[in-house]
Amino acid sequence: MSPASLPLETTVDYLLNPRNGWHAARLREHFLPTDVELILTLKLPSEHKDDAVFWHFDKCSMCIVESGYRLAIQLRDSATAGLSVGVSKGWNLIWTLQVPAKVKIFLWRILDNVHPTKVNLVIRKVLSDASCSLCGSLCETLMHALFHCAFAQKVWRETIFADFGIM
Ligand SMILES: [Zn+2]
Q1: What is the DSSP letter of 18?
Q2: Where do runs of H (alpha helix) occur along the chain?
Q3: CA 119 – ligand 1 centroid, Å
Q4: Most buried by CB count within 10 Å: which residue of 48, 57, 94, 162?
Q5: Residue 1: pLDDT band with limits 50, 70, 90
Q6: What is the pLDDT of residue 134?
Q7: How far is the CA of 120 from the centre of ligand 1 (A)?
Q8: pLDDT tens-digit series, residues 60-109
Q9: Locate the Reverse transcriptase zinc-binding domain: which residues (predicted)?
Q10: How far is the CA of 95 from the centre of ligand 1 (A)?
Q11: Neighbours of 62 (CB within 10 A)
Q12: How far is the CA of 149 from the centre of ligand 1 (A)?
């Protein structure tokens, strides 16, 4: 059974228990068990702070265009490196990126194609239908979910990466 999707406007507050950290039941409702275990290991701040949009790729939130461009170039180069000289070069680059560990793990899982796309879940006999839940395409591969799906493209168009012609 697939986890229930979250609306785009969902904030982290929805996934928190007001008294004692993560709301485990909601996490289990919306994420895969392996992801729930990872999320539950994330430490929460000791004092409450309101949700806010935050660009964590740079210490100076005023520099998001420059740091966004730098990140986009790193990602493009890592993809090129991974394709042309082997995946291990891409892995090495991922571990040197100045990004949070969760981003490195996400990128590493992309290179290793272990994200629970529907195609991967069909291969592992978890699901029998590999069609995309959002657009109905026949195969929800990693590339489809991240780049080719009309819904993913709509998200990319709302980011700064669209301005650089990367997506
Ligand atoms: Zn799709």
Answers
A1: T
A2: 24-30, 33-40, 64-85, 87-96, 101-111, 118-123, 142-143, 150-157
A3: 12
A4: 94
A5: low
A6: 93
A7: 15
A8: 555 556 666 677 777 766 665 555 545 566 677 888 888 888 988 888 88
A9: 89-156
A10: 30
A11: 8
A12: 4
**Centroid of ligand 1 to alpha carbon of 150 (angstroms):** 6
Burial group, residue 125, by CB count within 10 angstroms (0-12, 13-18, 19+): exposed
How many residues are present in the chain?
Answer: 167
Kindly report the pTM of this predicted structure. 0.44
DSSP 163: G
CA of 59 to the centre of ligand 1 (A): 34
Position 23 scores a pLDDT of 92
**Ligand 1 centre and the CA of 146: distance in Å?**
9
pLDDT at 86: 53
Find the 3 Cα to ligand 1 centroid distance in Å.
16
What is the residue whose two structure tokens read 């592992």? 124
The three-point CA angle 147-152-157 to 5° equals 95
